[in-house]
Amino acid sequence: MKKEIYIKMKYLKEYVDNLRDMSSCTLQQLKQDKKLRGAVERYLQLSIEIALEVGEMIIAHEGLRKPKKHQEVIEILGEGGILPKAFAKKFAPAGGFRNILVHMYEGIEVVEVYKNLKEISDFDTFAKHIALYLENKEE
Fold first, then answer.
1. N or C terminus: which one in the chain shows less Cβ crowding within 10 Å?
2. Could you give the 3-state DSSP secondary structure of residue 1?
3. Over 84-139, what HEC string results?
4. What is the pTM of this model?
5. Taking the chain (139 residues) in consecutive chunks of 10 residues, what is each chunk's mean pLDDT?
6. How far is CA 122 from the centre of its chain?
């Protein structure tokens, strides 16, 4: 499990670094530049997908309750002490935003994309806590 999570976290870092490069854009630029917006949306989707996949792997490994919705993956990691509860509560809506990115192509609000772009440090916090979890786990 550790090896697979480390590989996924490597990709997460790459995607978040790409988002970080784009994070200095303004809301107006994001509205006007469809290629920029598409890239931001895609990297956000991929980053959230990885966080959810890693979360599901840990949930299964730890025998925690099974999530019914994507948002619950992060909440369960908070309940299980893998993530701080306050952070899990703050980050959990990313699971719902993932669904919007994947299923509501015309209904994606640029303001929500921009807001999530400005919160990319949440992925850094997530990665830090996953690394701490993995340090304490046997293979």
1. C
2. coil
3. CHHHHHHHCHHHHHHHHHHHCCCCCCHHHHHHHHCCCHHHHHHHHHHHHHHHCCCC
4. 0.92
5. 93 97 96 95 96 97 93 95 96 90 80 94 97 83
6. 8
- CA-nearest of 117, 111, 119 to 27 is 111
**Is the Cβ–Cβ distance between 107 and 20 less than 8 Å?**
no
Q: Which two tokens stand for residue 100?
A: 């919007």
Residue 52, CA distances (Å) to 2, 45, 61, 103 in order: 15, 11, 14, 16
Alpha-carbon distances, residue 135 vs 3, 47, 79, 128, 138 (angstroms):
12, 22, 19, 11, 8
SS (H, E, C) 10-71: HHHHHHHHHHHHHCCCCHHHHHHCHHHHHHHHHHHHHHHHHHHHHHHHHHHHHCCCCCCCHH
